[in-house]
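2024-03-11 09:14:02 DEBUG pipeline.ingest accepted 1 chain
2024-03-11 09:14:02 DEBUG pipeline.ingest length=276
2024-03-11 09:14:03 DEBUG pipeline.predict start
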Amino acid sequence: ASGARGMGFDSIPLVDLSFDSLRLSRAGRRLLDDVSGRFRHGELSVVLGPSGAGKTTLLQVLAGKLVADSGAVRLNGQPAAPSRLRSFMGFVPEEDVMLRSLTVEETLSFAARLRLPGATPAAKAARAAEVEQALRLLGLRPVRATRVGDAGQGGVSFGERRRLNIGIELVGRPSVVLVDDATAGLDSETALQVLSCLRLVSRRGINVVAILHQPSADAFALFSSVLLLAPLGRVAFEGRTAAALRHFEEAFGLRCPRYTNPAEFLLELVSDPPPS
């Protein structure tokens, strides 16, 4: 990977992530069907699609956790094996696995020690810098000394825990951060806070890709590009967010009604029709 953007103690390679003709089937069911696209460094991108469209499956292939039956994943245009993909990726699952007895800062420090080993003063300084920057970017400084706990019982809020879950990956200095269901269980205002933090992260040069199920219009506007998947892992649209509505209007005569959330309109277009 070429290029670098400073973050904390060291620098992070700038990585554009592309994928060509990915196909994957399991137990006779097609999960990804000729999926191609590109996510760029320094941008926040979204993967949209109804249930069964293969969103999480795609992220797992891009993260090197699953191997596609055919197709290629590329880092800056060069084919990459799963082991190489994993070395550049941070994967944020929908469910967190934090110890509730640790504070926010202790959680990040522990994650940094796991991902950035070393006992030298330079290594310790690097970890401290990553933790401090994650606290700042994710708006967690005010609760750094608060135990994770459980919301409503003296712990951090659900939204803060979601941001902390992102921070656990961020302190490992990934070039690409993949976030599965970034706003699950959050109200619209808290979801927007989480996505705004992810956009700040992307502005550090990191390639951030998030799965969303039902983003608000304000949330959708934060993304630079969109990959819209239809059921059974087929690509309905891939490109700049600003061009998505225009594509369906020009190609199919389908215009988003006034005052309608663009993300909801796109999801309705690719969802299965209701039963008759």
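2024-03-11 09:14:41 DEBUG pipeline.report Confidence is low (pLDDT under 50) at residues 4-10.
2024-03-11 09:14:41 DEBUG pipeline.predict end
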